[in-house]
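Thread: Newbie trying to understand structure tokens

Hi all, I'm a second-year student working on a class project, and my supervisor (Dr. K.) asked me to get a predicted structure for one chain before our next meeting. I've only ever worked with sequences, so writing a 3D structure as a token string is new to me. If someone could post the tokens and maybe explain what I'm looking at, I'd be very grateful. Here's the chain:
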Amino acid sequence: QAQLVESGGGLVQAGGSLNLSCAASIRPFYLYGMGWFRQAPGKEPTFVATITAGGGATRYADSVNGRFTIARDNTKNILYLQMNNLKPEDTALYFCAKARGSAGMLHLADYDYRGQGTQVTVSS
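---
Reply by user tm_fold:
Sure, no problem. This is what the structure looks like when written as tokens:
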């Protein structure tokens, strides 16, 4: 049973930065693609970013491309999301998820485990 625990969320002003972490109790972590999703109140989760098992390839939602960076440390079993130039529309609950295979995936249905999430609130 995989367990994913996010941290690093908080309240930040527009233009600010946050670095989210996802500690994964997945063995072996390096075999699986990982992703970040976000969910605003009353809305469905949306894709933010994904990374392949080895970390060699990434993809981003258009809305965050150029501002967010996904990364992973396979020696520590940690997934990261560096978020810069935050905007009020980035406000949401952010959660990480483990893909079923090694590829980075765009759809939540292609993930089999997810964390509880960490809240990010961006004030204008």
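A couple of things are worth pointing out once you decode it. Residues 16 and 85 are 5 Å apart (CA to CA). The chain has a mean pLDDT of 97. Feel free to ask follow-ups in this thread.
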